[in-house]
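Lab notebook page, bench 4
Experiment: in silico fold of construct C2
Operator: M.H.
Input chain length: 132 residues
Purpose: comparison with the prior construct
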Amino acid sequence: MSRTTLNFWLDCTLLAVFVVLLFLSVVLNYIFPPATISQGWLLWGADYNQWSQRQFAVLCLLTLLLLLHVMLHWTWVCGVVASMRAKFLGKEKKMWDNGVRTIVGVGFMIVLLNILGLLLAAAALSIQGPEL
């Protein structure tokens, strides 16, 4: 399979998964009553929690597909960043080799995952239960 064909089918799959995520989000936010009073309500045999679990599973799938999409376009992304950097610094554009692109990509993922982890930790430490 050519790289172009792979990118085409990946993009089609990303669009389909995004539409499914959009559908699930609308169902949860506008079809079901609010989560606090949705007990006993069913849509096509599934309750609010089951629909919410489906939404999260589709979100995880979308995230993995987006990561694959960025990985397949990483050389292009690095080229654009190198061009913008050269223009900003007023220097000649210097293309990064594979090693530098890999280090930048891994470093970028480490930063993103640390930010996500810090936000999740802050949420876990800040959540408050109902007062009795």
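Observations: The chain has two domains: 1-69, 73-132. DSSP finds four helices and no strands in the chain.
Next step: discuss at group meeting.
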